[in-house]
Amino acid sequence: MESTELTPTMQKMAARSAAEFAEIVAPLNLDFTSEQIDQLLRYRDLLLERNRHVNLTAVRDCDGIERRLILESLRLVPFVQQHAGSGNIMDLGSGGGIPGMILAIAMPELSFTLLDATGKKVIFQRDVIEAIGLENVRAVQGRAEELGHDINWRNSYDLVTARAVTSLSALMELGLPFVSMKGWLVLPKGNDIEEELGIARKAAGKLGGTIVSYDELEQVGSDVSTRLVLVRKDQATPGTYPRRVGLPAKSPLGSPQDLAEKRPRKRARA
Fold first, then answer.
1. Exposure of 203 by Cβ count < 10 A (0-12 exposed, 13-18 middle, 19+ buried)?
2. Domain boundaries along the sequence of the chain
3. Residue range 18-42: average pLDDT?
4. What is the pTM of this model?
């Protein structure tokens, strides 16, 4: 396991910015304890340090991590709380722990599973869990295309979130098999998603989901425009989904690529 010990420079940075960071998140009205603020800052520092050696995120500066990653993740808290059901949450393709690790810090009463296919990213997640003493989160290495067919995983989560950079259609195909009936997908996306939504609506019907809303989140200290797509699972996802590894992203359901593959090929003339 790689060292998670904070260097003196990192400790000084966390202590120096605690009051300022508390002011940044204050408009969210999340009523954090000083321990939660400290955990968020320690996570930030660990992410900055490890990202020098392992590609965890393209955001590589302190302010960017605070505002573009942590603050963006915290904006999801009210929606997760509203749709959490019994409190069993998955973060799909969690990478460096965004948004799952942040949400776990913010909502210690809920249980989180962080799923990622890359071993180095999962090692980092486990190191953070140990370093900042999180008891409500576990990090698992695995592929959604495979675990989505496992009886121990399928239909097991009240809510699945994902910040992965892929299409809405692909996220629904990968995420809905894990969601229990009447559970939710909570998917933060960019502002320009009209074309994606058109394809995703076609996919939703095949996967048992309903796109309920896709509203823009209120700006609270971040310059990033985010549309939050909420998908409810109203019917069982057919057992053929998710498709084999790589196919949901390469050929999203409802996309021109998907439709082209399903068209019958014309026979060559003799």
1. buried
2. 78-258
3. 91
4. 0.89
